[in-house]
Design brief:
It is built from seven helices and twelve strands. α3 (about 80-90) runs parallel beside α4 (about 105-120) and α5 (about 130-145) packs parallel to α6 (about 165-175). About 35% of the residues are buried. With about 270 residues, it is an alpha/beta fold. The structure holds 1,4-dihydronicotinamide adenine dinucleotide and ligand LZUJQKHR. It catalyses: (S)-2,3,4,5-tetrahydrodipicolinate + NAD(+) + H2O = (2S,4S)-4-hydroxy-2,3,4,5-tetrahydrodipicolinate + NADH + H(+); (S)-2,3,4,5-tetrahydrodipicolinate + NADP(+) + H2O = (2S,4S)-4-hydroxy-2,3,4,5-tetrahydrodipicolinate + NADPH + H(+).
Amino acid sequence: MSKVKVIVAGPRGKMGSEALRMIEKQDDLELIACLDHKFEGKKVSEFEELPNFDVDIYTDIEQCFQAVDADVLVDLTTPEFGYLHTKTAIKYGIRPVVGTTGFSDEQLQELTDLAEEKGIGVIIAPNFALGAVLMMQFAKWAAKYFPDVEIIEKHHDRKLDAPSGTAVKTAQLIQEERESKTQGHPDEKETIAGARGADVDGMKIHSMRLPGLVAHQEVVFGSAGENLTIKHDSFHRESFMTGVKLAIDHVMKLDLLVYGLENILE
Ligand SMILES: NC(=O)C1=CN([C@@H]2O[C@H](COP(=O)(O)OP(=O)(O)OC[C@H]3O[C@@H](n4cnc5c(N)ncnc54)[C@H](O)[C@@H]3O)[C@@H](O)[C@H]2O)C=CC1
Ligand SMILES: O=C(O)C1=N[C@H](C(=O)O)C[C@H](O)C1
């Protein structure tokens, strides 16, 4: 059985290091290089906190792609570099599996078009935790009966993007199910800017950032005399790894871009 050859971008990060630990446990995956913004020429094994992989760290993506023969790029970096890495990987015919969040709609469209033009598989998943994917699907279903909804997402205070990719994706899924709707009192006024949260088509998204949190979301639906709350918690980043592995396996069979893990779950 030939192994899927993987590059991980962001190996020293919270998610990237967890992805290395996941890859170490798989018989059918091989880590062949890492991409970082520093430590050019060092080996992953030189970092005590990382698994003992004898593979090189590159800081130049083109140099990396030319030096090694990769099947998949797993990107867990920042919105700016995640987008650049994904675009470059598609051009090189390397299949991106992207967990990085914070891409704009325009960037997602551009990557979708590029993948189609190249006929190459890409998976961009705002959340790899299977429980979170189900939470989003349940929320979409509930929106059919409860059009009034607010999303509360809570994350660690090192997170760069707000709202979270998961909250944005949840709002998009709900939008597919409900008619556009303004919520709250028609004359409501914020006496402190931002009090009512971000607005997506009348839906409010509230973002909390605190030390101690990992990744949590509540989708709260309201109707006459009742509330329904759909809630998911990731307490550890291991929660995302089943989805990362699933996406690596699946991306090898795709020839277009898929946005959201729900589209590859059977
Ligand atoms: N889809 C999902 O299930 C999940 C997605 N995320 C997303 O993944 C991304 C990473 O999250 P964390 O690991 O928590 O962040 P982190 O800050 O711990 O790690 C990011 C890593 O990227 C590296 N980096 C920065 N610029 C780079 C570049 N030019 N080339 C290569 N590496 C570079 C940094 O050195 C850092 O080690 C974020 O966008 C976050 O929202 C996080 C958790 C789950
Ligand atoms: O930055 C994080 O931590 C997470 N980011 C993703 C998001 O923006 O939704 C997924 C998960 O919530 C953790």
